[in-house]
Amino acid sequence: MNAAKRYEMFVRFRAANPKPVTELAYTTPFELLIAVLLSAQATDVGVNKATRLLYPVANTPQAILDMGEEELTGYIRTIGLYKTKAKNVIATCKILVEKHGGVVPQDRESLEELPGVGRKTANVVLNTAFGQPTMAVDTHIFRVSNRTGLAPGKNVDIVEQKLLKFVPQEFLHDAHHWLILHGRYTCKARKPECWNCMQIDLCDYRAKTPAPATA
């Protein structure tokens, strides 16, 4: 995909969804951090169901520490890997209180020191909570980038660096939201809805899925 096609792709994304947002429910950077931490191998819908009950009771590092791991586990039991995630959330809250005054840090190095927080999670928080032009490459973005030819790469690190290089600067802040949503609802893993895709004429994917037959 050449530069002109990339630019047009994001023009279309912006026209269709001028202010994209994450589908995770949050009101503070801390709530977002915990939601993203819980979202690994889980759906945003599932995480939101859990945090909808958790956050009215405890939505600060100190409040969750006071709650303790056992009680926290009860709130997130419906989420995959909940036992490991509960330990990571408690450990993260402890570090936030002891090292950062209960405030979510705004730099990658500090974020990635938190248990359960990798590069992708840090990128989401830096972008969504703090407005930094980062690119959080999840399975959806990895698939869309490779399938369309936008930024092909063998692993998420290569795709991330290519996206940071290839996505026009004016679109960089919102790009990862557009790409996630596109991968989640249109450019799906098993059966992409190519017939319903606004980017079909720009996309390099050869095996485009035909529209389903109508009765």
From TrEMBL:
Broadest EC class assigned to this enzyme: lyase
Protein name: Endonuclease III
Reaction(s) the record says it catalyses: 2'-deoxyribonucleotide-(2'-deoxyribose 5'-phosphate)-2'-deoxyribonucleotide-DNA = a 3'-end 2'-deoxyribonucleotide-(2,3-dehydro-2,3-deoxyribose 5'-phosphate)-DNA + a 5'-end 5'-phospho-2'-deoxyribonucleoside-DNA + H(+)
Every HhH-GPD domain range: 38-185
Function field: DNA repair enzyme that has both DNA N-glycosylase activity and AP-lyase activity. The DNA N-glycosylase activity releases various damaged pyrimidines from DNA by cleaving the N-glycosidic bond, leaving an AP (apurinic/apyrimidinic) site. The AP-lyase activity cleaves the phosphodiester bond 3' to the AP site by a beta-elimination, leaving a 3'-terminal unsaturated sugar and a product with a terminal 5'-phosphate.
Presence of keyword 4Fe-4S: yes
Cofactor note: Binds 1 [4Fe-4S] cluster.
Swiss-Prot/TrEMBL cofactor(s): [4Fe-4S] cluster
GO biological process, alphabetically ordered: base-excision repair, AP site formation
InterPro entries linked to this entry: DNA_glycosylase (IPR011257), Endonuclease-III-like_CS2 (IPR004036), HhH-GPD_domain (IPR003265), HhH_base_excis_C (IPR023170), HhH_motif (IPR000445), Nth (IPR005759)
EC number: 4.2.99.18
